[in-house]
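Continuing the series of single-chain predictions for the mutant panel. This is the parent chain; the variants come on the following pages.
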Amino acid sequence: MKLLRLAWQLSLQEFLAYKTTSILTFILATAFFSVEVITGFVYFTMGNQLNGWHQTDYLLLVTTISNIVYLYNIFFIIGHENLSNKILTGALDYDLIRPVNSYWYLVMNRIDIPSIINLAISGGFSVILIRHETLNIYSIGLYLIAIGLGVGFIFLMNQIAISLNFWIDGFSALGGIIENATNLFSRPMPIFPQVIQIIFTFVFPILLVTNLPVMVFKNSNVIFYLGYLAILEILLFVVSKLMWKYGSQHYLSAN
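Parent structure:
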C-alpha cells in the first residue's frame, strides 16, 4: 500500500506538470456530461414519463453511469493504457520482478486526477437527484453496491481484453469496446427491444451494469440481478487472474 501511495503522489506531480492537458481533459469530460444532462431535459419536454421512467430517473441514470466511469478512470484507466503498451513493447521486465502483486500494481500504479474532479461534479448531481427517490439505508446501500459492481465489470472486461495481448497482437483495441458499449447502453432498459434486453442483461450484461443502480429504486427483483452480476464478476475475476498468470509466463521481453 505504501508503494501505491508513492505512485499516486507521482500522479499528482504529473498532473501539476501537465496542467494544460489535465484541464482540457476535465473541460471535455464536463462538456460531455453536460450534454447528457441537457439531453435528459430534452427527452422529457413533451411529458414527465417515458416507458415508465420519469425525468428524475433518467437523469439519475446518466449521472450514475458517469460516476461508474469516473471511478474506473480514477483507479484503472492510466494503468490499463500503460499495461497494454508495455505488453506489446516487451517492457514489463522491471514490473514483473518487483516483490509486489503485479496483477494489481500494474493497473493501480497511477490515478487520474481530472476524473476525481469530474466525479465530484457528477456525484454531487446524483446526490441531489437521489433525494427525490424513496430513501432508506437499505436502498442507498444497494445503490452503492450496484455502482461498485459496475466499476468491477468495466475493470474486469478491460483487464481480460488487455491480457489477450500476451498471445495476440492488436487486441488492445478491444479496450475501447467496453467504453463504447457503456455509452451505447446508457439509456433506460425498457426502450430497447426485448431480445437486446435479454442478451445485454444476461449474456454480456452491460445494460444491467448501466441500469442496475437506478433499478434499486424501481425494481423489487434487484437482489436477483445484484447476485447474478456479483457471481458473474467472481467468475470473470478468476478468468482474468488465470489469464494474467499464464500470460505473464508467455510474455516476451524486448530485452
